[in-house]
Design brief:
single chain; mainly alpha; two-stranded antiparallel ribbon; two-stranded antiparallel sheet
């Protein structure tokens, strides 16, 4: 891992510690203005880090494509080596599409609460396929994006100064990059920072027993992303040195969601469970041993627990993330996007490492 990326991961780990401290104690125990200012700054720094890692992930994708074109030029399109690299590119493209989908799903739910705080008639339908306007220039998607831009400008919900890394002036709340990823602009000028109701209503729900539909949908989609990522990595055909073929197929149903991931003991316990599960899959020829570590990384990074403890009380993890201020909920959603991009970086690096060295 290069030094810049290592520095990035360390910084994001630091912010995760700060957030864990805030939310484990309960935000209402802090001075409101201090809390809001701290969380707004954290979100701003997170968005800068997101911009950095998006560029790094694009670099890895471009490197894999470059290797493929070099192999075509030197070995020919029909050579076994070029065909193997092309299979990797198919996996990379599918994985990047999957990553953009879940990343934007999280970003859209962030926009949902930020805009709904000013206009309660906002819904997830308002954001459907808006990234397609940038990716393909689709007219229908562009019309929907234009309407959203007009709505945000009319509401004047974020008095925005140029943040230095999202330079377009389409609207003052978010930016869609050329790869179709939706990112927030600085929220220093967001007007409803003290809203403690909207995110609770839309993402947390009325109570532990009545979790909001959009919150449950978010968790379902994260779970789908995790499992589809595992399938993309693990499910492939392997030919050993004797010519024997093995078709690997991971069993995602055998991976249980932990009740808690609160402390080192919980993470160690989950780590051991994952190790045991993956080792058994290797014995059963369900996964290749060379994929074990990246599969484990994905599971540790993306799996969210069923519950957490807050104020000495056991509450659903999802409820705990979004029962606080709109800025606190935004920071939590931004942290989820960072988890997704870190996972993308590690998976892409793994796929790059599996390309034969002679292809560089």
């Amino acid at each position: 891992m290069n030094q810049n990326l290592e520095k990035f991961f360390k910084k994001t780990f630091f912010y995760s510690i700060v957030l864990a401290f805030f939310f484990s104690c309960g935000l209402d125990t802090f001075d409101n203005n201090s809390e809001i200012q701290t969380l707004t700054k954290i979100n701003y720094e997170q968005e800068k880090n997101i911009s950095f890692i998006l560029n790094k992930n694009l670099e890895i994708t471009n490197e894999i494509n470059s290797i493929y074109y070099s192999s075509m030029a030197t070995s020919g399109k029909g050579s076994p080596e070029t065909k193997r690299i092309y299979e990797t590119i198919i996996t990379v493209n599918g994985f990047n599409d999957l990553t953009r989908w879940i990343y934007n799903d999280i970003a859209k739910r962030t926009l949902l609460i930020l805009i709904s705080s000013h206009d309660a008639n906002t819904s997830m339908d308002d954001f459907e396929n808006i990234e397609v306007a940038i990716l393909t220039g689709d007219e229908e998607a562009q019309m929907k994006l234009n309407l959203l831009n007009e709505k945000i400008d009319r509401l004047n919900i974020n008095i925005h100064d140029n943040d230095g890394f999202h330079e377009d002036n389409t609207n003052n709340l978010f930016h869609i990059d050329q790869e179709g990823y939706i990112n927030l602009k600085s929220l220093y000028g967001y007007l409803n920072k003290n809203d403690y109701q909207t995110s609770k209503k839309l993402l947390a729900g009325e109570s532990f027993e009545n979790i909001a539909v959009e919150g449950m949908s978010l968790m379902d989609n994260i779970h789908k992303y995790r499992n589809k990522t595992l399938l993309m990595i693990a499910n492939h055909r392997y030919v050993d040195m004797y010519g024997n073929e093995i078709d690997y197929e991971i069993d995602t149903n055998s991976i249980e969601t932990p009740s808690f991931l609160r402390n080192d003991d919980d993470f160690l316990r989950f780590d051991q469970i994952i190790d045991s599960t993956l080792d058994q899959m290797i014995k059963n020829n369900q996964i290749n041993s060379s994929d074990k570590e990246i599969l484990k990384v994905v599971l540790m990074k993306i799996t969210k627990p069923n519950y957490t403890m807050q104020g000495g009380e056991r509450i659903p993890w999802l409820y705990a993330q979004f029962k606080n201020s709109i800025i606190g909920s935004t920071v939590n959603l931004t942290s989820l996007r960072m988890d997704i991009l870190q996972t993308q970086n590690l998976v892409l690096t793994h796929l790059l490492s599996k390309i034969p060295r002679r292809s560089y």
